[in-house]
Amino acid sequence: MDRYDICIIGTGPAGISAALTAKNRNKSILLIGRKDLSNKVIKSHKILNYPGLPDITGEDFVKAMREHLDRMEIEITEEQVTNVYAMGDYFAVQCAKEMYESRSVILATGVMPGSLLPGEEMYLGNGVSYCATCDAALYKGKEATVLGYSPKEEEEAAFLAEMADKVYYVPVYKDEVKLSDPKIEVIYGRPEEIRRAEGKSTLVLDGQEIVSDGIFVLRDAVSPGQLVPGLETDGAHIKTERDMSTSIKGLFAAGDITGTPYQDAKSVGEGNIAAISAALYLNGKERSNG
Ligand SMILES: Cc1cc2nc3c(=O)[nH]c(=O)nc-3n(C[C@H](O)[C@H](O)[C@H](O)COP(=O)(O)OP(=O)(O)OC[C@H]3O[C@@H](n4cnc5c(N)ncnc54)[C@H](O)[C@@H]3O)c2cc1C
To answer: Residue 220: its pLDDT value, please?
Structure first.
């Protein structure tokens, strides 16, 4: 298996900035995220305070960043990272489809919208899952509930319905749901709590409850503590030093995930610092290994 110098997780402004700088520093990089880069940037109507790009729309900003990546011949690996494990000398980056290895990691996953549902963390791995691709096979002949935080999760629900007998789909967004599989029932409501008893999981909505064999909570980002076991966090954010290093050696963080203000310019700046710090860390390691 190839071992990359720097694995960058997230394709928002922070991750893109880190990737561009890491490439400039001649490091081998693995950039994991989505081809359309960042839902948050796409949703920005107009960005008024980004230097040199007055009045740019979110969509045009994404387009410009994509062109920049193409020009620098940086590819995006479209995957969802489920866990990052510090293995001593390197990191194992577990994705839904593959496992990757990297000597350092930059987390640029953005901040999770809203807070965890009561019961979500407690039942994670026991009736609650974050990854349909990883766990769909366990639902053969069973019923599952999917809580989708963006329209792209409809694909995951459709995939799950190929295995499960029945899928309840709860959209947590305003766009029209385009699912047509008769095995999928779309239910609208505000999620309030997750409960688990006698092998069944219950999603409590305002006004009704959905009981099934398990619940998939599908968001763009998961909380950093769940992504990286043992990482020091401060609520939804990762604790960092000024060089964007974290409590784990070789692991850096940048962008919204490190705290407020949630801004494009701050994210880009931190991505740049994180990449330079990761490069210095790797160079230092090489020197001390002789
Ligand atoms: C409506 C709106 C308007 C805004 N307007 C402005 C503005 O005018 N000016 C301004 O400066 N800021 C604005 N912002 C804020 C700005 O968009 C954010 O600060 C910025 O996008 C943060 O960049 P980021 O790279 O940290 O994270 P994000 O842009 O959130 O990107 C994170 C990326 O990581 C990916 N990811 C997350 N978890 C995983 C995982 N486990 N595996 C793989 N990939 C993962 C996500 O899919 C996403 O692609 C606005 C935000 C919104 C929502």
So the answer is: 76
